[in-house]
Amino acid sequence: MNPFKIIKYGKHFTNKRFMSFASHIGKNLTFLRQAVVLFLCFRDPETPKYVKAVIAGALGYLIIPMDMMPDAVAGLGWLDDLAVLGVAFKVANRYIKAIHHEKAKSWVPFGKDSL
């Protein structure tokens, strides 16, 4: 997936909507910690704007209920979201710091740190 196509979903992303999504979904998503790592990287003032745009697009895609494959489809519904997060991780990899992983681990004690 092209990172520039992901950016268009940034209009659906806000800090408040992401935190609401994260608290609502909770332990149902094994990759929630990775999403939180991206969220913390997004909030870091040292992260470049183009990386923030890709992260906002990926997180926006994650929180909207209607996407390429509806999330209600058992097992398969989250695969497209996981792919979009993977692209965002690849773009943001240089700017993700150890502190982002540590904070994400304290917020979401389950799951893995990276995709």
UniProtKB/TrEMBL annotation:
Keywords: Membrane, Transmembrane, Transmembrane helix. InterPro entries: DUF1232 (IPR010652), UCP031804 (IPR016983). It is a multi-pass membrane protein. The keyword Membrane applies. It is found in: Endomembrane system. The keyword Lipid biosynthesis does not apply. Residues 51-85 form the DUF1232 domain. Pfam families: DUF1232 (PF06803). It comes from the Bacteria. This is YkvA family protein.
